[in-house]
Structure formats: structure tokens, C-alpha cells
């Protein structure tokens, strides 16, 4: 398979994400700007490999659960959610709002864990599978503000200032606005997005480092978000303090991730032997 074919197959998977009812072949071909015949061949291969399924009644194509299974298998092996979940749960209880943990991956951020702290009234509960629009979210701005300005602007400009159809009225639209927001984020020590990534919501975020040292690299972000009716200005200072304390706690425990990843797995034969003859029993 050529590099171009691999790229097209990946674009098919990306285009099918977030489509619970599937997509018709002709519509998908139009989205990808590919001939119907070429799109059908790609889909046939992905169906054969189990990444895509076709609805027998409608003929629409959709993602199978295989990608989700692979992703969760990888996260389980890395131990990522477990490392930070205790601190994240504590943050959710303290703020009584929706909290998330994202990690830096190359020039992007990826959600890996969440905790719902709202116990009454409106509950903000966005999908974890949605990508993070860096310039339109508190999470993205917190990370961008930790980078040299030129690097942050390069990353955003390479992607453009397009936002989702759910974006709010205050979403950043150009470089000058982004530069101003990043400057404010550095001054405050935490990022704020008021009806930017989504209408009717307010989000706040901070970065946390890969260890307690001040010069440790940034490992990810912690965020809290909720309906704008609850995330009023008087509450924000309180939530900022909670976020910053959680970030310090996360930096203390994050090195556990490296140790978890370095623990060698037992060979299958050894695992079977241990199961058959637990410690304290004789053969």
C-alpha cells in the first residue's frame, strides 16, 4: 500500500468519526474529493480489517468499535488515566463542575480522563472523542501560553482559525486576538474561555509539568468547565486556585507514569504459572 493510500484510509476514518448513523458512499466520496470507486475500495479494505462496518439496511458506512478498543487497550497499558484520576476526581468534587485531563502529544493535546463534579442543575458533559481546538479552548490556550510565542502562533496558523459549528460568539478569529489572549493567560497563570469553544459555556485551564521541578517539561493540562450561568466571575478565582493546586499535585504524581510504563510485563508462560501456583501454595 502506498503512502497516499494510507493517508486516504486515515482520512476515511477521520471523516466517519462522530457519525453514529454512518455516511453514504457518495457523500463520503464527495467529502474526501475522491472518485466513488476509489472510496469504495478503501472502505472495502477497512471493512475487511474490521475498522469499518456497513449497515445492511441503509448501506451507510460507519466506524466499528475496533478503534475504540485499540485506544483503550493502549491507555490501559500506559496507565495514563489511573495516574491522574484521583487528583482529577478531587478537583471535580472541589469545583462541582466538569473536569478533564489532557496530555501533550507532539504538537497537540489529547483528552485522556474526565470527572463530573456537577451534582444538580445543568450538567456540562461534552464527548471525549472531540478534538481540542487549540485557539478556541481554555485547555488549548493554557498549553499555547506555555510555549514561546512564535512557536504557539506557528502551530495555530498552520491549522487556521476555523472552529466548530458549536463555537461561541467570542471565539478567537485572528493572530492579534490570539496574542492578546496568550499574554493575559501568562499574566494570570491560568487560561479562560468565555463562550469561545461552545455557546453558553465557560472553561478554565492550567498546565501541569512532568515533575515537581520548575523547569520540568509541560506534560498536559487540567481544565474545569460548566454553564456560563454557574461559572461567574466571583467563582473563577476560587476555581483558579483549585486548578493550580491540582496541577502541583499532578506534577508530584506524574513521574509514576514513567515507572508504570517501565515495569516489564511477565511472559505469558510466567503469568500462567503464577495463576496455577499462587504464592504460598505448593506445586
List SSEs in N-to-C order. Answer: HHHEEHHEEHHHEEEHHH
Shape type? globular
Could you give the distance between the termini? 51 Å
Largest sheet: 5 strands, antiparallel
The number of helical elements comes to 11
The low-confidence runs, each spanning 5 or more residues with pLDDT under 50, are 263-283
Radius of gyration: 22 Å
Report the average pLDDT across residues. Answer: 85
Q: Strands of the largest sheet, in order across it?
A: 4-3-7-6-5
SS-derived structural category: alpha+beta
The number of strands is 7
Query: How much helicity do the residues have?
Result: 40-55%
Oligomer: single chain
Portion in beta strands? 15-25%
Structure description:
The chain is α+β, with helices and mostly antiparallel strands and 283 residues long. The protein contains eleven helices and seven strands. It has helices at residues 3-16, 25-32, 36-48, 66-78, 80-95, 138-146, 149-159, 175-188, 233-253, 255-262, 268-276; strands at residues 52-54, 61-63, 98-105, 108-116, 191-194, 201-209, 218-227. It has a five-stranded antiparallel beta sheet, with helices on both faces. Strands 1-2 form a two-stranded antiparallel sheet. The longest helix is centred in the last third of the chain and has 21 residues, at 233-253. It starts with a helix and ends in a 7-residue tail after the last helix.
Amino acid at each position: 500500500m502506498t503512502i497516499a493510500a494510507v493517508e486516504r484510509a486515515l482520512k476515511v476514518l477521520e471523516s466517519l468519526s462522530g457519525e453514529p448513523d454512518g455516511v453514504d458512499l457518495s457523500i463520503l466520496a464527495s467529502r474526501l474529493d475522491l472518485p466513488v470507486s476509489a472510496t469504495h475500495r478503501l472502505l472495502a479494505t477497512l471493512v475487511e480489517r474490521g475498522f469499518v462496518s456497513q449497515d445492511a439496511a441503509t448501506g451507510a458506512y460507519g466506524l466499528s468499535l475496533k478503534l475504540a478498543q485499540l485506544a483503550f487497550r493502549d491507555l490501559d497499558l500506559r496507565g495514563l488515566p489511573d495516574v491522574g484520576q484521583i487528583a482529577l476526581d478531587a478537583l471535580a468534587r472541589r469545583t462541582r463542575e466538569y473536569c478533564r485531563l489532557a496530555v501533550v502529544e507532539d504538537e497537540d493535546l489529547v483528552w485522556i480522563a474526565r470527572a463530573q463534579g456537577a451534582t444538580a442543575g445543568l450538567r456540562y458533559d461534552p464527548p471525549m472523542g472531540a478534538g481540542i481546538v487549540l485557539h478556541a479552548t481554555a485547555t488549548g490556550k493554557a498549553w499555547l501560553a506555555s510555549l514561546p510565542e512564535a512557536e504557539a502562533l506557528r502551530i495555530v496558523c498552520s491549522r487556521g482559525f476555523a472552529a466548530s459549528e458549536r463555537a461561541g460568539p467570542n471565539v478567537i478569529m485572528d493572530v492579534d486576538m490570539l496574542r492578546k489572549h496568550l499574554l493575559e493567560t501568562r499574566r494570570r497563570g491560568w487560561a479562560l474561555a468565555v463562550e469561545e469553544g461552545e455557546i453558553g459555556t465557560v472553561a478554565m485551564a492550567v498546565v501541569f509539568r512532568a515533575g515537581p521541578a520548575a523547569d520540568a517539561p509541560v506534560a498536559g493540562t487540567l481544565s474545569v468547565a460548566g454553564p456560563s450561568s454557574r461559572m461567574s466571575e466571583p467563582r473563577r478565582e476560587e476555581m483558579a486556585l483549585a486548578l493550580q493546586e491540582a496541577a502541583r499535585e499532578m506534577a508530584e504524581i506524574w513521574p509514576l507514569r514513567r515507572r508504570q510504563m517501565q515495569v516489564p510485563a511477565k511472559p505469558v508462560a510466567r503469568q500462567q504459572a503464577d495463576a496455577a501456583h499462587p504464592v504460598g501454595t505448593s506445586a
